[in-house]
Each structure stands twice: as structure tokens, then as C-alpha cells.
Amino acid sequence: MAILLNQYYLQIAVFVMVNAILGVSIYLTLSTGQLSLGNAGFMSIGAYTCAILTVKAGLPVYLAIPLGGVAASFISIIIGFPALRLTGIYLAIATLGFGEVVRVIVLNLKITNGALGISGIPTLGTKIGKILSSFGMSKFGGFSAQQVSTLLVLVILLLVLAFLIFFCIRLNRSRVGRAFAAIKADESAAEAMGINTTYYKLLAFALGALIAGIAGGLSAHLTFFIGPKDFAYHRTVEILLYAVLGGSDLVIGPIVGALILTLLPEVLRSASNYRLMIYGALLVTMMAFRPQGLISEETVRYWKGKLGRGSKQ
Amino acid sequence: MITMKKGLIKWFSGMTIGALLLTTAGCGGGAAPAANSGSQSGEAAKIGVISYLTGGGAAYGQAIKEGLDLAKEEINAQGKVKVDLIYEDSRGDKTEAINAINKLINKDNVVGIIGPTLSGEMFAAGPIADQAGVPIMGTSTTAEGIPALGNFVFRNALPEFLAVPQAVEKAISTYNLKKVAVMYSNNNDWAVSGYKTIESTLKKNGVEIVATETFADKDTDYSAQLTKIASLKPDAVMVSSLYQEASLVLKKAREIGITVPFVGTNGFNSPELIKIAGAAADGAIVASPWFPGKQDEKVQKFIADYKAKYNNKVPDQFAAQAYDALYIYASALEQAGSTTDRQKLRDSIAAIKGFQGVTGKFAFDEKREPVMSATVLIIKDGQFTELK
Amino acid sequence: MFWQQLVNGLTLGSTYSLVALGYTLIMGVLNIINMAHGEIFMIGAFVGLYLVTYLKVNIFVAMAGAMLASALLGCLMEMLALRPLRRRAVSHLAPLISTIGVSIFLESLALNLFGPQSQAFPTELATVQFELGPIRITLVQIIILGISFGLMFILRFWLAKTRVGKAIRTTAENIETANLLGINTNRIIFLTVALASGLGGVAGVLVGLSFNAVEPTMGLSMGLKGLAVLILGGMGNITGAMLGGLILGIAEVFTVAYGASSYRDAVAFGMIILILFIRPQGLFGKRQGGRF
């Protein structure tokens, strides 16, 4: 148990959760067949909004994080209206451009403190630690307050993620989800059936941005510091990788992708020189041999069938 | 379908738990004994190093590693204390720096940490070390506010707000500057912080700033900015950037006929600047604690040893400060008399006075900022010489 | 100052055009955006640099070598990353993602092979300059301008008049039909990718020469600029790529000269976003059909 609660592993688990939430964000946009490469940009809007609200305006974290998400989602609607007339690669490039523009703006604004970034952001862990010690609890059967507060942060993140997954699964079974699926399968056919494709595409886009923004706000409050470099092109590629590796048919796909791609670098610490080469090769191989990702609907059906039969025997 | 949904949720929770187990058990093994157990003095002190070893800025991280490795060999050969370095690569990324520092503190149980390379990484990693009570010392993190992160956070890098004004003021008095142009890399925290110091020093001295132009790290085309500056005919140009950009700026400036003196921040004191910019570097002014031309036995021995070990390369400031940092740790470890007690190490680092390193006399003030002096240098005929 | 800045803009722009030509060729024939083009350009620059530095060859031989190496690299990419996708019906996003993979692979490979430091050509070619009235222009700038315009005209002529050019255009129109007409489309695709990548390699050497810096991340920034030009000029449009590059170069330089230099990097993508919203087919593109 002591090994399990090692701060190092807890911290990695925290990053797994944040990345999994980012995975959900790209899943939502992809569920209408739209590839957005602007998720890092939305994440950055969420992170900065949230950090500025807590550090400069003194808002409590639990209010600031959703507000960061709302800000990202608001911007996404503004750029979404014209952008979603574009399809496929055009949208991908426009959103990629959007991410770069956000980065340059962040570098130039006074309130974001340019390249110096915002430091001294109170972390969720320290906040929880303070609350705990105000109750006079600083030791928990051999575990330090730091461990316990990180563990609590992890539980909060897990709850957020669980809620998002629940939400996505409900969504898929709803009218909206079916519209998303129809658009993904064939946009013109969906339109011919009377689905307001612009509305649903915009909805998916805005939901993706909302969640990316929330993930941004969370990450700002987990790392003490945010700077413009954290949300550059490579971050976008990483988020894209979650969906490509895990698969984007089911919400669980990008989450598994995020899990693997957050753990792998830690396991392969000594080979960190080659990490990006491995990622690159992974993208190419996945596209060539398994474009649907590791987990697709068939995979789930297959394993369900197999396990079902196994339990009967 | 409903059962499938449930199945998915169950499957997911299974996956998450599995993942947690995997992270812990998979990497685990013999981790996490208490750090303060058994402090035999014969044992090597484990010092963690977080450095920018791969990726775009690896040139700086590698120089730091070279300086540290050389110091480690010498310290272990002298035998008063034994040190062992555990390197972690942060790739200039704050998330990596956070993971690296947690690994070093909680898995490798290091007694102290050197690094990370960038100020931005330090802002994310410093508080973690402070909370865990592990001393951490930046060797290249010059941005304002770093030791303020906590009682365990130190640096032996001379911050911009101490070094830069010296160079700027010296240039103002030597060349009687009335109007100058300023250029800086605006996506580099280090360069921006240097720029702010330049700006405030100029204002304080009543020098007019005729133009403020920016560029980005890794930019290659500076003709637009420099053409604009040339047309304004300033008395001098002040540049805040790392040496790669600085040398390209100098080259282009001389090419289009800007002959006025250039004053730079830390990026200008690298021997690489002269190597890349060649004759164009002549007339560049910088204040630096590190001066390879210094007639000092210690400095010259360091340069000779470094050259012998690394293929005739002249050490730059990154290497020199890293070299000193490990010696500071070694002398603090000696004082503390323990190779594992983090608190004692912290206290003896804070108490260091009159330390003589290759970057000069050194001490920490009560805010854990370095107290050291810089020399104002000018490049003449491809050599750093003191500007008098 | 205006005229000098215009020259600065034109030289910068012509390097963008050179890079964008490669994008546009591949876009025109294969209908995909090759996100790895910037990295192929960077590898080309390194090959040229090493040829000049270590084998002490003449700069034009180095350019030929760089061209050959990047063309081979392009063919390798076509075989490993693009052809498998054509065989099976996958989403049109697949090649985009696959080439993003190639790009980060190559960038990381270059970082490991060549190190992160920027390196310069040992030649003094870049310092030769002429003064014409108020403006100052270097020999390399003239060479770049000459080569990019020369290549543009050759390409246009070649595609319009020669047999192979016609085959390429047919393939660009419709691969299946071209196949039926007896064109070996695989060979044509190979040729196009090799040509585009080779152009990228030459551009790499020229850009490295003119700015005196070759380093592994130069591909990403240049690639993104080339991409911007591709959208600006209209996808698969050679004149568009040429003029789009010049427009972007001039716009960037004038942003620095008369506006705020800190917004320079937003110009390219601000333009992309604007163009996509106002005129998605690009400044010089036609709404439908007719590539090249």
C-alpha cells in the first residue's frame, strides 16, 4: 500500500486522468466525423481563463474551472459558425491555425504575462491539504497530508471522468447522439433526412471545446504554472494520438489511448530520446493497419461474445 | 444494449484500477524506503539532475550535464564526499519536469536536486521539491521570483535583474548612448525577463527607446526587424535572446550595415556566439559572471580539463554554473555530515559563504538569491575582453 | 525603407513559395495534405549542409544531392505511409494523420542524428551582396528568386505540354479513370511525390543558405507556413502557391515594418482562417475541378 501511494505514481495517475479528459474532448468532436486540431488552443483558453480568475480575481477553484470551460466553448462557437462550413482537412487546418493564433495572442497579452506565463497558481492538492489541516488532520495512519490530498485530487478527477463517460454513453443513446452518428456516417445523407447538420456539428465542436477548456483549467491547478509552450502544436498531436491509438468509435477508445500514452513515456524513461520517433511510427502504423484504433465496436462485441460464451461453459 | 452499457462502465472502472496498479507495481520494485534512514558518511550522496537533454534546447541541457559530469569526477577523486548523479530528461516540458522531480524525490530518494534548465520548468517543479522538503538548485533559471518559490529553492544563476543593468549602464557611459533600439525573443521566458530589465534600466537612465522589435526562438529571418532598426539610426542595439538567435541577429545586422555596439543578455556570453557570428560578433557587450579569459588558476584549470574531456570544446556559462553548483552541493554535504539528510543539506547550502568557484566568489543572501559579481565583457577580434 | 522591406518580403516569400510548390503538387495529384513536407525540406537542408561541410562539394552539387535524398525520402514515405491507405477505403483524414506521424518521426530522428544546434553553411555565398539605389540584395536572395520563378514556369510548362505532365494531370483528375486509360498511376504518384519532395530538398538548401541556419525544428515552422500558402493560394494551384507565398512573405515583413513584430507569427494563420471563411477555394483557386 505504501508503494501504491508513492507521490510519484499518484502524480502520474493524476496526469492520466487529465489526459483521459482531453481524450473525451477529442472524441466528442470526432463523433460527428470532424477532426479538430484546435483542442490545445481551447485547452489553453480554459487554462488561462481559470488561472487568471483564481490568481488575479480570487475566485474559488470550483467556480473558475467550469468558467474556463465555458470561455473555451464560447470562443469555439464564435469560430465554429464559419469554420464548420468547412469539412475534413479544411476544418483540420483551420483549427490548427486557430491554435497557433491563440498561442501568439497569449504571448502578447499583458494579462497572460506573455512567455513568462502565470506562476504560483494554487494547486488543488495544496488547497485540499489546507482544508484537511484546518480540521486538524495532518497524518493519516502513516501517510503524509501530501499523499492524502493527492489521493483526494485523484478521486475528484476520477469522478469528473466517470461523469463524462456516463454523459457520453447517455448522449450516444439520445436523439443528439444518433444525429452525431448519422452525420459521421454520411453528412449529406443526414442532411437529406432533415438533420440540421450545422447545429449538431457546432454542438459537438462546442462540447469538445468545453471539455478541453475544463481539462485546461484542471491542469493549470495541478502544476503550479502555465506558459504558452504548454499548449503548442505538439500538445495537439498528442491529443490526436489518444484518439488514433485508442480508437474513436467509443468514448473508451481515446481514454485508453490517453492511459497508454501517459504511462508509456514513464516506463520508457531511458528511451526518451526516441519517444517522438516511436509516436510518429505509431501514427503511421495505426493508420496503415488499424485505422479504427485499438478499441472499436467490433472489438467490444468480440470480447463480449467470447467472455459471454466463456462464462456459460 | 443496456447490459452493454453497464459492461462498459464496469470494464472502465476495471481498466482504471488496473492502470493504477500497473503504474505502481509495474515501475515499482524496491521503492520508497524512508529517506532519513542510515546515514553512513562513506555512502555516495544521491543528487538528482533534471535537465533539458533532448529536444530543441538540448544544447543548453547538454552543456549543463558536461559541467556536472566533470565536477562529479573531480569531487569523487578528491574523496571528501562522494556524489552520485541521477539524470532525468525533462525535454524542456513542465509536465515532464514534474514527473521527473516526483520520481527523483519519491522513487530514487535523492538528497538534493540540481535543475531544471528552464525557469518555466522550475516554476512547476520548485514548489514540489519545497513541499517535499528537498533542496533544489537551478543553475540556469534566471527569471525573477524563483527562490521565492520556497525555503528549499536556490539558484546559482545570476539573475537578469542583477547582471543586465551592469552591461547596459556601462555601455551607456562608455558610448554616451542617447537613443537605442531593443530586440528580444518574445516566446522565451528567459529573454522576456531580460528585456524587461533592459527596458527599466534604459528608462532609469533617461535613454530613449526608438524601437522595440520581437522575434521568436528558432527564427531565422531578422531582415525585416533590422531594416526597420537601421532606418532609425540608433546609437546601440540591445538584444535579449539565447546565443543561436543572437548570433544570427548580429550577422544580419552587420550585413545590412548596422555598425553600432550591441548589448546583450546572458545569451551573448557563450563562446558559440563568436563561433557562429564570426567577425560580426565584434563590438558585442555582455555582463557575465563567467569569463573564460579570466586570469585565475581555477578558471584556467577548469577550461583545460573541460577541453580535454569534451573534444576541445570551450565551456560556456551553462557548463560553468553547473560545475560550480555541484561543488556547492559537495561543500554543503561536507558541512552537513550526512549524505541523506535533506533538511541538514538545505541548511548548510543556505549558510554557504565565501565559496570560490569558476564563476567567482559566491554566497547566498537571506532570500536564497546568489551574491556574485559580474564582469562587463566586450568581444574584440573574436575574443571576450573586459570592457574598461 | 519601403523598397528594402519589399525586397525582404519578396525573398522571404519566395522561400515560402518554394515550399508551397511541393505541397501543392502532392495536393493536386493525391488530394492529400502532406504534413511531412516541412520535415523533408529540413532533411534536404541537412543533406546539403553535410555535403558541403564534409565532402566539400560545390553548392550546386549539394543542391542536387539534397534533391536526390529528399526525393528518395519522399518515395519511402509514399510506400510506407501513403500507399497502404490507398489500398483500403479509409477516412480522408487518414493520410493527414499518417503524414503528421511521418513529420514527428523525421523531426525527432533529425534531433537525434544532427543534434539540436543550428548549423551554418561554411560558404561565403550569403555575404555577397549588391546595392541598387536604396536597396541591398544578396546573391542568395537573387538565386532563390530566380530558382523559384524558374521552377514555377518549368513546372507549368511541363505539366501542360509533356506526355508525363499530361499523365499527371489525368491522374489528378481521377485515379480510376487514369488507370483505365492505361496510365500506370502508381508510377505517376511516385513521380509526383519524388518531384515534390525533391523540390522541398532544394528549398531546404536555399533557405539554409540564405538565413545561415539549419536545424531540426526548421521544418515545422516552414511547413506550417507552406501549409498556409497552400490554403491561401488555393489547393493544388501552382500559380496560387507561387503568388500566395510572395503575398505571405510581404505581409509578414510589413507587419514587422509598419505594425507589431510580435504578431508576425499570427499573420500566416490569421490569413488562413480568414481565407477559409471568406473564400475556401483560395485566392487563385476555382470553385470546382480543374487542378494545375
TrEMBL record, chain A:
Task: Give TM segment ranges.
Answer: 12-30, 37-55, 61-81, 88-106, 148-169, 202-227, 239-264, 276-295
Record-linked Pfam families:
BPD_transp_2 (PF02653)
- Report the principal subcellular site: membrane
Name residues in a coiled coil.
Answer: none
Name the UniProt record assigns to this protein = Branched-chain amino acid transport system permease protein
UniProt-annotated location(s): Cell membrane
Q: Which GO terms describe its cellular component?
A: plasma membrane
Per the record, the domain of life is Bacteria
Q: Which GO terms describe its molecular function?
A: branched-chain amino acid transmembrane transporter activity
Q: Supply the InterPro entries for this chain.
A: ABC_transp_permease, LivM-like
What CDD domains does the annotation carry?
Answer: TM_PBP1_LivM_like
Which controlled-vocabulary keywords does the entry list? Cell membrane, Membrane, Transmembrane, Transmembrane helix
Membrane-topology descriptor: Multi-pass membrane protein
UniProtKB/TrEMBL annotation, chain B:
Q: Which InterPro entries match?
A: BCAA_transport, Leu-bd, Leu_Ile_Val-bd, Peripla_BP_I
Q: Which GO terms describe its biological process?
A: amino acid transport
- Keywords, ordered alphabetically: Amino-acid transport, Signal, Transport
Which Pfam family is one of those matched by this entry? Peripla_BP_6
Q: Which Gene3D superfamilies match?
A: 3.40.50.2300
Please tell me whether the keyword Signal is annotated for this protein: yes
Domain Leucine-binding protein, first and last residues per copy: 46-380
Which protein family is named in the record? Belongs to the leucine-binding protein family.
Q: What is this protein called?
A: Branched-chain amino acid transport system substrate-binding protein
Automatic annotation (TrEMBL), chain C:
CDD domains associated with the record = TM_PBP1_LivH_like (cd06582)
Q: Which GO terms describe its molecular function?
A: L-isoleucine transmembrane transporter activity; L-leucine transmembrane transporter activity; L-phenylalanine transmembrane transporter activity; L-valine transmembrane transporter activity
Topology versus the membrane: Multi-pass membrane protein
Q: Which UniProt keywords apply?
A: Amino-acid transport, Cell inner membrane, Cell membrane, Membrane, Transmembrane, Transmembrane helix, Transport
Transmembrane domains' residue ranges: 6-26, 33-53, 59-81, 93-115, 135-159, 188-211, 266-284
Which GO terms of the cellular component aspect does the record hold?
plasma membrane
Stored InterPro entries: ABC_transp_permease, BCAA_transport_permease
Which GO BP annotation is one of this protein's? Answer: D-alanine transmembrane transport
The compartments listed are:
Cell membrane
Family (UniProt) = Belongs to the binding-protein-dependent transport system permease family. LivHM subfamily.
Write down what this protein is called: Branched-chain amino acid transport system permease protein
Give the organism the record lists.
Desulfosporosinus hippei DSM 8344
Q: What is the lineage of its organism?
A: Bacteria, Bacillati, Bacillota, Clostridia, Eubacteriales
